[in-house]
Design brief:
The chain is α+β, with helices and mostly antiparallel strands. The protein is built from 3 helices and 4 strands, in the order E-E-E-E-H-H-H.
């Protein structure tokens, strides 16, 4: 991928009426909630807001929360925290045995199907690209992937 980034982007349904698509509105897009997992943990929200005044004009605004800049402290690296918890005997963040078995109950059939189905290989793509072109076929009409 072009960037090392882990995030979950939820795009909300667009407004069903055209009242907000008046002249003077700037790039009206559906609202989004973006949860950034790595490398800079946080949450951002992109919403269409009315520009003050008597006219119905909309423009996108962004609200952001970044864990690192809000608390001005460095979070420990993942394995640093894991090793420290293991040394302390704190199993809070460790996966329980029954969870592992349930996860393999989901993953094992997928792995088996991949090994048995020679007609649908795992798609490869060049490093630094946005992924395989076949990913476009996963989307419905009028949908597009979020740019990284």
């Amino acid at each position: 991928m072009p960037r090392k980034l882990t995030e979950i982007a939820v795009t909300l349904k667009p407004v069903p009426h055209l009242a907000l698509r008046s002249e003077g509105s700037i790039g009206v897009q559906p609202n989004q909630i973006i949860l950034t997992v790595q490398p800079d943990e946080g949450v951002s929200v992109s919403i269409g807001a009315k520009i003050p005044g008597s006219q119905m004009r909309i423009r996108p605004v962004f609200m952001e929360f970044h864990y690192g800049t809000s608390f001005m402290s460095q979070s420990p690296e993942a394995y640093e925290r894991l090793i420290l918890d293991a040394m302390r005997g704190d199993a809070t963040l460790f996966t329980r045995n029954d969870e592992i078995e349930a996860l393999w109950g989901i993953i094992d059939p997928i792995l088996t199907a991949w090994h048995e189905d020679r007609h649908s290989p795992i798609r490869e793509y060049p490093a630094g690209s946005a992924g395989p072109s076949a990913a476009e076929s996963l989307l419905g009409p009028g949908q597009k992937w979020r740019r990284l």
